[in-house]
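Chain A, query sequence.
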Amino acid sequence: MTSPAPMGRRERKKAATRQAIADAALRLFLERGYDEVGIREIADAADVSTTTLFKHFRVKEALVFDEEADQGERLLAAVREREEGQSIPAALREHALTLRMAGGGGAEGDADFAAFAGLVAGTPALRDYAQNMWLRHTAELARVIAEESGLAADDSACTALAHFALGAPRVAVGQENPREAVTRAFDLLEHGWSALARGEA
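Chain A, predicted structure.
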């Protein structure tokens, strides 16, 4: 597989600016609440103009999901490039739990995941945006699942798995242990309800 060409100076600067804006926004949102923070305040915190901010993020909600543009590609890669012997549901679960928003694992990662999940859960605009952001990948993900499974492109089971996998992270909303909630949701997709009910999952 060919490695991507290294970014030039201009691309690195744009990426750094985007990251600074996203980091400033998330910090302020977590400190004070999404609805209490204005765009100008975020721009000031990131030391950019509001015009620059909107060049990187079209709407306020996108500031919370700063890697949205890459998520579709990463999602499909999680299935296509999974380890040998790893199931598709397991690969999707791993992808869901290792997103930037889910933290880096361990106690600190769990705290980050819980803080982010709490922010999204408590903000209707973010809940809707997140759900729509993920579900629009359903058809593409279903197609890749079908390809990887040797099934027909329009197989309804592939569409169902894609839909449920993309919706699964939402079960973390309001849960004391969001990571465990997401893991259990994917256990259900992996093993089926009957196995889960029997305690075999």
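Residues 68-197 form a domain with the Tetracycline Repressor; domain 2 fold (CATH 1.10.357.10). Residues 9-32 form the longest helix (24 residues).
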